[in-house]
């Protein structure tokens, strides 16, 4: 897993360039939000079970067919798997928040997820909706809606959403 610093160094090192103003600005921005990132991650960690429970409740209220017979969250096992997945997304979003980099999301969450869900018949739409709900709950918990706070959630939403080519 890379963080904002190692990614930046790697990008400049591979081209043999010294840091320019853009690189310095990116580092300043990362360090300026460092304490806020750690505080947000701590708040997420302390409230993870509640956030996942609330997100699941809201998702099932918004898409009740998921928990009806034949729905993808029908039966205790499937319901628990849905909540487990929401917990994964939240946990890895907190890692990406601290790192200031979304590489961990590609490496640990998103790589092959669409194919796995499609092969299991798990709908992507409600998954994306659940991640959006988590994002809103995190904004409410942390008390701000900074770009860096929503970035990991937005990245997962964008990568999982249907793409028209």
TrEMBL record:
Q: Where does (2R,3E)-phycocyanobilin 2 bind?
A: 72, 77, 82
Q: Which GO terms describe its cellular component?
A: phycobilisome; plasma membrane-derived thylakoid membrane
At which positions is (2R,3E)-phycocyanobilin 1 bound? 35
Family affiliation: Belongs to the phycobiliprotein family.
Alphabetical GO biological process terms: photosynthesis
Q: Does the keyword Membrane apply?
A: yes
Q: According to Swiss-Prot or TrEMBL, what is its membrane topology?
A: Peripheral membrane protein
Listed A to Z, the keywords are: Antenna complex, Bile pigment, Chromophore, Electron transport, Membrane, Methylation, Photosynthesis, Phycobilisome, Thylakoid, Transport
Quote the protein name from its UniProt record: Allophycocyanin subunit beta
Q: Which residues carry this modification: N4-methylasparagine?
A: 72
What Gene3D superfamilies does the database record attribute to this sequence?
Answer: Phycocyanins
Q: Which organism is it from?
A: Pseudanabaena cinerea FACHB-1277
Instruction: List the subcellular locations.
Output: Cellular thylakoid membrane; Membrane
């Amino acid at each position: 897993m890379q963080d904002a610093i190692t990614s930046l160094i790697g990008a400049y090192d591979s081209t043999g360039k010294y840091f320019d103003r853009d690189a310095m600005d990116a580092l300043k921005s990362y360090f300026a939000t460092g304490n806020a990132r750690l505080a947000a991650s701590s708040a997420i960690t302390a409230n993870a079970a509640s956030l996942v429970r609330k997100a699941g409740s809201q998702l099932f209220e918004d898409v009740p067919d998921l928990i009806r017979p034949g729905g993808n969250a029908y039966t205790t096992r499937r319901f628990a798997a849905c909540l487990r997945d929401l917990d994964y997304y939240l946990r890895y979003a907190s890692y990406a928040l601290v790192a200031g980099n979304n590489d961990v999301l590609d490496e640990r969450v998103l790589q092959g997820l669409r194919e796995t869900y499609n092969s299991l018949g798990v709908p992507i739409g409600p998954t994306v909706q659940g991640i959006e709900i988590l994002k809103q709950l995190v904004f409410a918990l942390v008390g701000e809606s900074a770009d860096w706070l929503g970035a990991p959630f937005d990245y997962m939403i964008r990568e999982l959403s249907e793409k028209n080519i």
